[in-house]
């Protein structure tokens, strides 16, 4: 438990530190380019621990390593202008616009660069995402079951997307809680039209359909001395049917074994293209990592992954496509949260980001880089929202002033910023409360709205 807490803290400090530092570096470079006096460039917040001064800028390392900040002369509307030409407010609006834009832009660029580098090193995804969207399992009493969908169906359309890959299907379902979706499937050569209405599921209350992709039951390992090994099964075999019922989704095998209650079960399997059959009698036992007594046959299944290295051009193109897809999804999620079509529980605050960062760091460096890219993209887009205090708020004010060809009243600007700050604090309080509720045991969660 202590290890998990420590890795969560270290991982989120690194992730948010890099994200915010890159963001502020964008403002810093643009300000320096336009001759704006930068008084402080700080890595971290709070008390100054160490630093040096070069020109009129104090480069410092501060106590709290969760990001950083840039302090430009005259950037706050409540500051009294001194008349110096190197102050922020003294510069033309288009230059201030670029300075404000460069922070979010650097976060978006970082997301593209991180994924490009990751894809050049290793481009990996589940094998089922490359082929057609075949359904391998339908959960009983689920939206997919209620819609009349079945294992073996091939999804040829969902909403407006024709022949969608599973990744797009999962995102579409997640974003459409309670919204009817038109779904076309192909079943034994026949085209069927169905309507699927995802329901909210899980702590984030994302859309849930209750279907799973086709996952062949290929054996990664067979435990010596256990029923499967005694029946002649070996690593590399693929179980294709149990008691004559086709197996299209290997995680369902455990449920089928429990329903069979230990009776001998006929297993059809494929080895090097040749079909074979044998009979296995499960045993009631525990397993490593699962102390529960369950009917088992002693096998481990493999999740087929596609892994390859992309060239620089292909990696960059794939990175752009991935970031574009998730950027559009961010806007869709935010719009649906405000229109109350999605639950605000989908939002993650600092505690949630720490939990995700720690989990990714414990998994692999590639997972952590992928998460960093996603967070950087989210941070860049969030800062473009037209909320006073954020960069997007400043950009909006500059656009308004440029349209009316005069500066807004100083008092008006101060009030706008105060309102924006209050709104931002409300959002911060909500997401932290949201994180805390999602961290509680499930039996306590229903006591909180």
Please specify the SSE layout and strand pairing.
Blueprint lengths: L1 H32 L4 E17 L2 E16 L20 H29 L1 E4 L6 E6 L4 H4 L7 E5 L2 E2 L3 H9 L6 E7 L2 E7 L2 E3 L4 E3 L2 E3 L3 E6 L4 H4 L7 E5 L2 E2 L5 H9 L4 E7 L2 E7 L2 E5 L2 E7 L2 E3 L3 E4 L3 H27 L11 H14 L1 H18 L8 H14 L5 H30 L2 H4 L4
Antiparallel strand pairs: 1-2, 3-20, 4-5, 4-11, 5-6, 5-7, 7-8, 9-10, 12-13, 12-19, 13-14, 13-15, 15-16, 17-18
Helix pairs in contact: 1-2, 1-8, 1-9, 2-7, 2-9, 2-10, 7-9, 8-9
What does this structure look like?
This protein folds into three domains: 2-121 and 358-445, no CATH class; 128-212, PDZ domain (Pdz3 Domain), CATH 2.30.42; 217-301, Pdz3 Domain (Roll). The chain has twelve helices and 20 strands. It has helices at residues 2-33, 93-121, 143-146, 166-174, 227-230, 252-260, 312-338, 350-363, 365-382, 391-404, 410-439, 442-445, and strands spanning 38-54, 57-72, 123-126, 133-138, 154-158, 161-162, 181-187, 190-196, 199-201, 206-208, 211-213, 217-222, 238-242, 245-246, 265-271, 274-280, 283-287, 290-296, 299-301, 305-308. Helix 1 packs across helix 8 (350-363) and helix 8 (350-363) runs antiparallel to helix 9. The relative contact order is 0.12.
TL;DR of this structure?
The protein has 449 residues and is an alpha+beta fold. It has 3 domains: 2-121 and 358-445, no CATH class; 128-212, Pdz3 Domain; 217-301, PDZ domain (Pdz3 Domain, Roll), CATH 2.30.42.
């Amino acid at each position: 438990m202590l290890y998990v807490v420590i890795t969560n803290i270290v991982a989120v400090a690194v992730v948010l530190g890099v994200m915010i530092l890159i963001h502020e570096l964008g403002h810093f470079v643009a300000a320096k380019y336009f001759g704006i006096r930068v008084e402080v460039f700080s890595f971290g917040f709070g008390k100054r621990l160490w630093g040096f001064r070069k020109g009129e800028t104090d480069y410092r390392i501060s106590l709290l390593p969760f990001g950083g900040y840039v302090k430009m002369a005259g950037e706050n509307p409540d500051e009294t202008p001194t008349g110096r030409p190197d102050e922020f407010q003294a510069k033309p609006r288009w230059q201030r616009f670029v300075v404000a834009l460069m922070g979010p832009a650097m976060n978006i660029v970082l997301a593209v660069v991180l994924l490009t580098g990751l894809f050049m090193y290793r481009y990996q995804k589940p094998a089922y995402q490359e082929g057609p969207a075949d359904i391998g399992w339908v959960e009983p009493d689920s939206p997919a079951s209620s819609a009349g969908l079945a294992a073996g169906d091939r999804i040829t359309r969902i909403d407006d997307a024709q022949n969608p890959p599973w990744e797009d299907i999962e995102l579409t379902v997640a974003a459409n809680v309670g919204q009817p979706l038109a779904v076309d499937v192909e079943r034994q050569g026949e085209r069927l039209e169905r309507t699927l209405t995802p329901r909210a599921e899980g702590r984030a209350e994302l859309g849930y359909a209750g279907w799973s992709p086709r996952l062949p039951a290929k054996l990664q390992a067979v435990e010596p001395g256990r029923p499967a090994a005694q029946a002649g099964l070996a690593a590399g075999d693929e179980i294709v049917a149990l008691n004559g019922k086709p197996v299209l989704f290997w995680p369902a095998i455990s449920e089928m074994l429990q329903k069979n209650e230990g009776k001998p079960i006929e297993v059809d399997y494929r080895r090097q293209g040749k079909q074979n059959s044998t009979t296995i009698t499960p045993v009631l036992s525990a397993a490593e990592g699962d102390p529960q007594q369950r009917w088992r046959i002693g096998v481990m299944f493999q999740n087929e992954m596609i892994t390859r290295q992309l060239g620089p051009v292909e990696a960059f193109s794939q990175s752009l496509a991935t970031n574009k897809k998730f950027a559009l999804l961010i806007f869709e999620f935010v719009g649906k949260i405000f229109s109350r079509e999605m639950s605000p529980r989908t939002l993650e605050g600092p505690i949630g980001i720490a939990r995700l960062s720690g989990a990714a760091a414990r998994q692999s460096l590639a997972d952590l880089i992928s998460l960093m890219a996603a967070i950087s993209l989210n941070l860049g887009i969030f800062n473009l929202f037209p909320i006073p205090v954020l960069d997007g708020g400043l950009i909006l004010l500059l656009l308004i002033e440029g349209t009316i060809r005069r500066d807004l009243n100083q008092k008006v600007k101060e009030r706008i910023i105060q309102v924006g700050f209050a709104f931002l604090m409300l959002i911060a309080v909500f997401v932290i409360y949201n994180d805390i509720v999602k961290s509680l045991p499930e039996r306590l969660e229903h006591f909180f709205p």
